[in-house]
Specification:
Structural class: mainly beta
Number of strands: 9
Radius of gyration: 17 Å
Number of helices: 0
Strand content: 35-45%
Number of domains: 2
Strand order of the largest sheet: 3-4-5-6-7-8-9
């Protein structure tokens, strides 16, 4: 019985799950685990930039949830890969505070 390919490990160590295309990310040794091609994944805690990000193929529509400064932070991509903080939930109270930011 021949099974369909479900996972690929490239010679450079990058791993693709649910694809037959050459994977562009690794599961270890890289700070990012991308899921699909639409902007979903987990970024590692490199220079305080860790979090769970989600969105679609429009980069400026991507959002990230991260933890830091005693809060759960909500950030939005500015279209060039930089996430600007838009709000935060306080750890101690759960109170949400919006952040005024000018693009």
């Amino acid at each position: 019985m021949i099974e369909n390919e479900r996972m690929r490990i490239a010679s450079n160590g990058n791993i693709g799950i649910g694809t037959t295309a050459t994977p562009s990310n690794s599961l270890t040794g890289s700070p990012i685990l991308a899921v699909g091609t639409s902007g979903y994944g987990i970024s590692g805690d490199v220079a305080g930039d860790g979090g769970i990000y989600m969105g679609d193929s429009v980069v400026s529509a991507r959002w990230k949830i991260s933890h830091g400064s005693y809060a759960m932070n909500l950030l939005q991509n500015n279209g060039s890969g930089v996430y600007n903080q838009r709000g935060a939930f306080a750890n101690s109270t759960g109170v949400y505070s919006s952040v005024s930011y000018k693009d």
